[in-house]
């Protein structure tokens, strides 16, 4: 099982369908779980996916339209009910503080959840996780919305043949430095993931997606509704594909599909995206990050 994997819990936009639940995406990143935009039904979808409240370390809300946040009350209450002992970091637009409070305390329950709140305002924020940074950047939607970018630091990959050649083994490997370290290893770019929901095309969409291994991005509409997409602050599949190509994205995950489209329409999303690494997400898909790459790959 991959230690870095996206669990797709829901892929609908404003209205769920028989085949698509409201939004919900859990990224398993080593020992951390980051849940993005839990809509209605997220608890049950997590059960279907074999996930539990203890798998959650971060709860990231892009904006406070219902399909992106109405699952928050159930998630928060489940964290308490299941006795999750570790803190859960909650990231959300500061302008929606009143909505966050209503969702956080939407019903009566025995509240034992340890939730550390990180309201984001202005141009965005950068937060530190365990082995990664989480960056939030402002998007262009009808209300204040943020996209997220997760990145681990660059590192180095050891070359076993070079280590043997220099007789370096065991704990001595961790103490290598200077020219010998450079000779016995090669640069390894840190893995990166971006999450972009409701927005028109804007500079920060490209900034979030630049060079990521995995881009989860809304593609609410096809070309036939491009005008409506712009009016309502959304992207088309073709625009999502353009972002992925221009930013060197390795794996593109299209999601947040309007209820107007049928199963017969789905091949058009991939056709219009025009990206070789694209998938159209379906509920309960599990999508691993691509394998690590070295500098120059």
In short:
The chain contains 9 helices and 16 strands.
Shape field: globular
Structural class: alpha/beta
Rg, Å, rounded: 20 Å
Unreliable sequence segments? none
Largest sheet: 7 strands, mixed
Q: Which architecture name does CATH use?
A: 4-Layer Sandwich
The overall average pLDDT, rounded, is 95
What is the H/E order?
A: EEEHEHEHEEEEEHHEEHEHHEHEE
CATH superfamily: Ribonuclease Z/Hydroxyacylglutathione hydrolase-like
What is the CA–CA distance across the termini?
A: 24 Å
Beta content comes to 25-35%
The CATH topology, please?
Metallo-beta-lactamase, Chain A
Please give the order of strands in the largest beta sheet: 6-5-4-3-2-1-16
Number of helices: 9
Number of strands: 16
Helical content (DSSP H or I, runs of 4+): 10-25%
CATH C-level: Alpha Beta
Task: Please give a structural write-up.
By secondary structure, the chain is of the alpha/beta class. The protein has one domain: Ribonuclease Z/Hydroxyacylglutathione hydrolase-like (Metallo-beta-lactamase, Chain A), CATH 3.60.15.10. The chain is built from 9 helices and 16 strands. It has helices at residues 42-48, 72-81, 97-104, 160-165, 178-183, 203-209, 226-232, 237-246, 266-273, and strands at 4-10, 24-29, 32-36, 58-60, 88-93, 115-120, 124-128, 133-138, 146-151, 155-158, 185-188, 192-196, 214-218, 251-255, 278-280, 286-288. Helix 8 runs parallel beside helix 9 (266-273). The two termini are 24 Å apart. The model has no long low-confidence stretch (mean pLDDT 95).
């Amino acid at each position: 099982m991959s230690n870095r994997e996206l669990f797709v819990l829901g892929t609908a936009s404003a209205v769920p369908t028989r085949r698509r639940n409201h939004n919900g995406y859990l990224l398993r990143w080593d020992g951390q779980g980051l849940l993005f935009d839990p809509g209605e039904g997220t608890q049950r979808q997590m059960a279907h996916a074999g996930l539990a409240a203890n798998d959650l370390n971060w709860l990231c809300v892009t904006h406070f339209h219902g399909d992106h946040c109405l699952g928050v009350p159930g998630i928060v209450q489940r964290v308490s009910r299941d006795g999750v002992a570790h803190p859960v970091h909650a990231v959300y637009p500061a302008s929606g503080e009143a909505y966050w409070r209503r969702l956080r305390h939407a019903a009566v329950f025995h509240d034992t959840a340890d939730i550390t709140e990180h309201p984001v305002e202005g141009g965005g924020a950068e937060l530190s996780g365990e082995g990664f940074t989480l960056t939030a950047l402002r998007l262009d939607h009808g209300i204040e919305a943020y996209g997220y970018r997760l990145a681990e630091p660059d590192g180095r990959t050891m070359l076993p043949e070079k280590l043997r050649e220099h007789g370096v083994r065991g704990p001595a490997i961790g103490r290598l430095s200077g020219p010998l370290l450079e000779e016995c290893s090669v640069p390894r770019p840190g893995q990166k993931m971006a999450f972009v929901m409701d927005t028109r095309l804007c500079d920060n969409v490209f900034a979030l997606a630049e060079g990521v291994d995995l881009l989860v991005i809304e593609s609410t509409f096809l070309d036939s509704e491009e005008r409506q997409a712009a009016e309502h602050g959304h992207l088309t599949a073709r625009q999502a594909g353009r972002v992925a190509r221009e930013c060197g994205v390795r794996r593109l995950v299209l999601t947040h599909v309007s209820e107007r489209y049928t199963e017969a329409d789905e091949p058009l999303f991939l056709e219009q995206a025009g990206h070789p690494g694209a998938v159209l997400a379906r509920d309960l898909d599990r999508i691993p990050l691509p394998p690590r790459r070295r500098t120059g790959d």
